Amino acid sequence: MSRIKACFDRLKAEGRGALLPYLEAFDPDYETSLALLRQMPEAGADLIEVGVPFSDPSADGPTIQLAAQRGLKAGATLKGVLELIHQFRQGDDHTPIILMGYYNPINHYGIERFCKDARQAGVDGLIIVDLPPEEVEELAPYAKAEGLDIITLTAPTTPDERLKTILKDASGFVYYVSITGITGTRSATEEQLKAAMARLRGATDLPIVAGFGITTPEQARTASRISNGAVVASAIIKEMAATYDEQGRATAASLPTALEKIRSLAKAVRG
């Protein structure tokens, strides 16, 4: 059984949704992001989404864009991000890791080689924001061969017919982009989430997690109860980045600040 399925099965038995905090690899440096990654599960992360810094993102808001720029400045590469996850796996063999990024670096790396290296590093699922269903067959056979789930994205504007295409070969879980727009800008209402989940659950049996615009513990609690989990990204990054020095370097307050934010989100989700 995959780590992702095992995690959602366990949470279903517990009667609660998941918390999926986001970490931008190499932000603001390799050592700090590795230290944060290693401590996220203890702080309450059920699954972890690891972002691959990219120079031309299409879905990320200003907070994650700046984090990606810091990561690239610190020397982030796709190979380096896989090494980061490999180091994490030396001490944690059960927390699911979802790699989030864009297709250009994967294509440049080599699709088959990437899937093999990702699995060996300890990756469980892939969110490739700019890879539409019509093109996913370039990647899908290699990902499937390595046991990697390709996490599909749906949005409030996705028509029912398009939903069938998107969900046809979905695995792991479905990521519901709960707003129209970019990350970290605004939030969906409880009523909007309920309506969206009713529609999505009529189209798939997979767990559904909600992301984009979830910033507070209360919003995470609501999203994780209506859906099967809440993704929180910009809110964690923004609070951590506020502790960096004038050169954008981590300080003694950086890790404790990020971890405290995750603990407050986890307490709400589990409450």
What does this structure look like?
It is a single chain. The chain is of the alpha/beta class. Helices cover 48% and strands 14% of the residues. It has helices at 3-14, 30-43, 62-73, 78-89, 103-109, 111-121, 140-145, 160-167, 190-201, 217-226, 234-241, 254-270; strands at 18-24, 48-51, 97-101, 125-128, 149-150, 152-154, 174-177, 208-211, 229-232. The strands form 2 sheets. Strands 5-4-3-2-1-9 form a 6-stranded parallel β-sheet. It has a 3-stranded parallel β-sheet with strand order 6-7-8, with helices on one face. Helix 4 (78-89) packs parallel to helix 6 and helix 11 runs antiparallel to helix 12. The longest helix has 17 residues, at 254-270. The two termini are 28 Å apart. The model is unreliable at 181-186 (pLDDT under 50).
